[in-house]
Design brief:
The chain is an alpha/beta fold. Helices cover 52% and strands 21% of the residues. The protein has eleven helices and six strands. The chain has a four-stranded mixed sheet with strand order 3-4-6-5, with helices on both faces. A two-stranded parallel sheet has the order 1-2. Helix 8 runs antiparallel to helix 10. The protein starts with a helix and ends with a helix.
Length: 210
């Protein structure tokens, strides 16, 4: 919610409207309170949204959608994107060369943290977008920054462990999340995973603009 909240606050400063979709009533309540009417927060499945939008931002959602639903995900982006609009996705990815092996096996994160999740690769993002009629316009990666972020989160969680235990969470819970954060930091630092922001537009949009 933090990234989406910052996007909505920026849009409000620029006098642009912002609509946010979530499936979580708790997240909706938190966002409504933080944004104080500065955005429309809808409790809605993205597939049921209507209308078109000049800009669409999806922050690390595609990983949770699951591979079998990627075509529907990109088809929805295509349908909801206005002519001349931009769709920007932030996603955690695995290298193209490792995707075919990765998708056939499980791991700690997909078993215990995000059941049913699946990381795409850069080529998969381009391919799925193209199948839906979207063209990749730009890509930016910053996995090394995420490595540092995960280490900071792990350190803060360790420092807050006494307070976390007071909420009823036990040592196995803390160990599991510490392992998750530290292993993510290692994979980002070594290039086994990355974080990318990719921009899509309707096919032919660049040529038309030129």
């Amino acid at each position: 919610m933090a990234a989406a909240g910052r996007i909505c606050r920026t849009r409000r400063r620029n006098r642009a409207s912002c609509h946010r979709l979530t499936l979580s009533p708790a997240q909706k309540g938190y966002a409504d309170a933080r944004l104080d009417g500065g955005a429309e927060i809808r409790l809605q499945d993205y597939r049921h949204a209507g209308g078109t939008f000049d800009n669409i931002v999806s922050v690390e959602m595609i990983e949770a959608v699951g591979e079998r639903y990627w075509p529907a995900y990109f088809a929805t982006l295509k349908a909801r994107l206005a002519p001349g609009g931009r769709a920007v996705l932030q996603a955690i990815t695995v290298p193209d060369a490792e995707f075919s092996i990765y998708r056939k096996r499980s791991d700690f994160i997909r078993q215990h943290i995000f059941p049913g999740g699946m990381l795409p690769s850069p080529a998969i993002l381009r391919h799925q977008g193209a199948k839906a009629g979207l063209e990749l316009h730009a890509s930016f990666s910053f996995g090394q920054d995420y490595a540092r972020t995960c280490r900071i989160w792990a350190e803060r969680m360790t420092g807050a462990a006494p307070r976390i235990r007071r909420f009823g969470y036990d040592e196995p819970f803390l160990r599991g999340w510490r392992y998750y954060l530290e292993s993510c930091a290692a994979t980002f630092a070594t290039g086994r995973s990355d974080v990318v922001q990719v921009e899509f537009g309707h096919v032919g949009q660049i040529a038309q603009a030129a």
